[in-house]
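Morning run. Coffee first, then this:
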Amino acid sequence: MLNKIFDADTEGKRGKVRSYLKSKIKAPFTYVAISTLGGLSRASAMITVSLDNKKAWPNGILRNSRYFMLSLDRNGVLEQFTVSYKIPKKMRKARAKTLADAVLKINKYIRDIRR
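And here it is:
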């Protein structure tokens, strides 16, 4: 059995995961949704991060900003699936042991690309 880093069994637990990730990721814009398309046992956190304030997006469109999107599976696999051409470095696929570990990896990536 795989080690689960978060529970998505109820809406309350999904809400706690969303609010935790949104509050801990250090970026001007963060959006988190929990996807349960494969069922509750295969839930994933879908994370969208922009390095620019929402007001600074050209034409108010997220995809015109410096943004990236990742998925965090319940078993800890953190994978970037979309990145803006304005960001020179892609994030490597990683495995997190806890939600806090996943946040550390995301924040480290944000620090690296802001340099």
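The two ends are 40 Å apart (CA to CA). Good start to the day.
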